[in-house]
Amino acid sequence: SIELKTPSGLSRYQQASSHGNSSFPIYENGWYEVIVRAPGYSPAVEKIKITCNHTEVLCSSAVHLALSALKPEGNIKILLNWEEDLNLDLHTVQIDKEFTSTHCETFYGQQAACTGSLFGSDIKVGGMPAQDEGEAIILENVANNPTLTYMVVVHDNSVKPNLQSSNTRLALLDGNKEEVVTMPASTVAEAEYWFAGCVAIVGDFFHFVPVNKFSRTNPVETEKLHCVELFKRAPPPSTPAFCMGKTLKINIRNSENNTDINDAKIDIVRVKGQHLESINVTSAMIASDKLSLEGNGIYKVDVYRQGFQTGSNEVSISCDINKCNQCDPSITIPMVGAIRKKHPRVVLVWQKERKNPGLYAIQRNMETGVRQCVSRNNRQCNGVTVNAHNAVSNANHFKTMSVGSKHIGKAGNIKYYTIVVNLKSDGNGNEVVDETIKNSKVHVIVTDSSGASLRVNMRTQTYKKDKYWIVGCMGGEYMVTASFTEINQFLDSPPEDGVDYCKHFLSKGLKNCFAGLKGPSYSVADNGGLIKQTMFDSAKECADECTLMQDCQAFDWFGPGDSEFKSCLLYKSGKLSGSLDDGRVRYASVCPKAGRN
């Protein structure tokens, strides 16, 4: 699974394609964080700054990440990756802090000269390695050598060195955690060496301290004892005290009927500051649904089960050593199974800090904008199905509903929906922020019948005890997640009593080219000629362009995960294909207009 954290704090989630690729739309400039996870592997993390000019037709950035299989406890892997067409080399310099007269260096030219240090592959070009995870050095059986320290150095060994532009990063992994270190800007012109930092051994694990010194010559010549002296001044910290015997209760539920899901694969990481620790689930699970805890932090849980979409949730654990009897954390992950065509499922998830938030939809006619129904307070809507099990699943901190008209035959029956959460807060919008909202991790997951899914996290930065969260909008005949547009705003009064936040779905009396959108494996067949190819962030924008163009009667739009993501092809005419098995993430619609062939 892939998580993208945006500059505004929103998290988006996707599953990688069969080729290991994925794409996300970008709506703002700033720093993004990409986290990739898979069972049995340590997570990979990369930060990237996006700066797009509004005049650019296509602005894209690529991140290359390699997952490393979890190492057995007692081994430490140091992994080097970079982007540019340069030849960078990884070096470690091993010195015993009790016998500093000698040292031993491991790199491509001395691959097994040092006891307990083993060099991996010599990668001579940046980017994603073709058959490897990057240049690596493994420190073996470290608990047997607790007095050893290690300098970690990167050397630009290129014909024309350009270390500054390499976008270099290191990953340090043991059987429990990964720490990712990104090279900062060089402070030395034409530097060829980056002295990244120092590694000390703590039991079976590592303690890394960044140094970030740059030089034109090998730092071993002048800085050989730097790490020894550093750890004498500041020894590795001891593990903070934690409540003994505490566990995290993990509830995996079927979102449709609230029954238990057994035999799911579980992947867990713990976030501590800037670090991610992979939890060894095999040894840490003391029962099928209980994880033994060793410390505080944010625990991110992914679950996998055949027949269901990947489920995910997270919980913040902060047990007070003086109040251990009050520490009883739990987390629920609702999983989405089979879904009827044209009826995507909407799942509201929260943690126990909230009592009973409500989930409902405002249904409107796509042609006129007239509000037809509000599925709130047990009101029935023919386009909204509230899960009959919600009263029971409420105790497990989730609720679900399906949206999509039961009777679609002509344009007047095509709907669009505003997804709303009733937060049931007390107070007015200008009062202080209700901290229970920030701690409750409220989010909504939308999944369509093709398995495409999206997650919207509540933007708590702008929350001020408001009572309603307007999540976003979706609509059309086939109700695919590609039609979803995020709103993520708050109101004190019911949104159905005010303006239409989703009025951009209206066809305004024109032939609506969005209403019949199908995907993600459809295309326009037998097209009557390409009018133009352009770029749009969403299928809705591509459809609107076709709607307003007199000659346009069909279009293709390529979605996230496709090599042509955001491409919009507008045609003079065409027919809608059936579902294709071509591996493309492509949405299509036809909209014949009066007087056109």
Q: What do you see in this structure?
A:
This protein is mainly beta and 597 residues long. 6% of the residues lie in helices and 38% in strands. It is built from 6 helices and 40 strands. The strands form 10 sheets. The chain has a 5-stranded antiparallel beta sheet, with no helix packed on it. Strands 9-8-12-15-16 form a 5-stranded antiparallel beta sheet, with helices on one face. The protein has a 5-stranded antiparallel beta sheet with strand order 28-29-25-31-32. β22 and β23 form a beta hairpin. The protein is globular, with a radius of gyration of 27 Å. It starts with a strand and ends in a 7-residue tail after the last strand. The mean pLDDT is 84.
Question: How do you describe this structure in short?
Answer:
The chain is mostly beta strands and 597 residues long.
- State the helical fraction: under 10%
Secondary-structure content class: mainly beta
Largest beta sheet: strand ordering: 10-11-7-13-14
Number of helices: 6
Total strands: the figure is 40
Cα gyration radius (Å): 27 Å
Q: What is the subunit arrangement here? A: single chain
